[in-house]
Amino acid sequence: MKKVTQSVAAILIALLVVGCGGNGAGTGSGSNTNVAFRDVPLTITQINALKAGDRAFAMVERESGIVFVPITLGNRYTAGANDYLTFKDSDAKFGFGDSGSPILTPDGHTIGALSGSYGGDNVLITPIDKMLNAVGRQASASNQSFQTKLAWFGVGVSDRAINEFKESNIHFIDAGPTSQAHAATRGGPGFELIAGRSMAVVPFDGPLVKMFAIGTLTHDPNKNESLGFGHPLNWDGSPFNGMPVSPARVVAFVRDPFWGSFKLAVPAGEFQGGIAQDRNTGILVERTRETQWINLVVNANGRSTTHRVCRLDDMNFQSLFVANGLDSVAQLMFDSGNPGWHETNITLTFANNETMTLEPGFYNWAFAGYDVWSAIADHWLHTVRVEITIN
Asked: What's the pTM?
């Protein structure tokens, strides 16, 4: 995957930020006001009848609203067991975070979801019939041979933690102060999970540190469900035990042909469900899906803060969020990039309200997160609260 080393704040100064106009039907450069999103999927027969040279529209969300960008379908592409439609994006108009953006016929019917790229400027479309057919099926390894258009963002995440994510092949972008200025929309009215709009997957949430993935919902089969992304959230397609989702507000589209363009967005509105299935052709979100939250209480430097992390099925993925989140929280609480060595007490609270206090440890809180995770990992599946006191 492409690596990003600058913060968003620096990128927004150095690069062209594109704000494509649009509201509802889509207006502004590159859009067509005659397109109307019907949220009606094409049948497999209709999709198979599509051919190179056919006109279509990509429905993308930008800071100013929904935009319908005209595209021309290209040749089909096969990766493993999956077949995709394609089009060219030579001007880097689409990027990370646009995963799941509906691709429409000129009369507004859904062809599929923008999902990835291969061989330079070739963009993949996951057919909507493949997304629908995958619902309820057993997950299998994706074996992807292309770059997906999913972006993970962090606010308050340390440089070391960001590097940990990148070393794990997770495309992670420091959202920095740019997104914090827009985070006040959280809890505000007018943000709903709905097809064609941006969404955030938020496994780590709190006042100092947030970690979230940004993508787009593609299709609402019914009032309780939505399909999105057009590719798996995780590479192996394993489910994630209700990882929570919320609507997202687009801050800006950063057009960067060198590092990879991306849609900067932040969680907005309340959590409105969770991921019920993570499959090779996309995710299924259920509004009624409940999240299992674990509270992480950190007491340090005369301060106390509570963050929460959702319980995941994938313990390796879980350790990335817990360890790097704890590192980042501790460093911010000490107002330093290197808090140094401190005796640390850890108390676990379980679902039955019983508690367990671990033997005190002596940790260097510049990078103690993985040591703490090792101490609590065996108890994680039964834990509802972790209180850490850094003396």
From this structure: 0.88
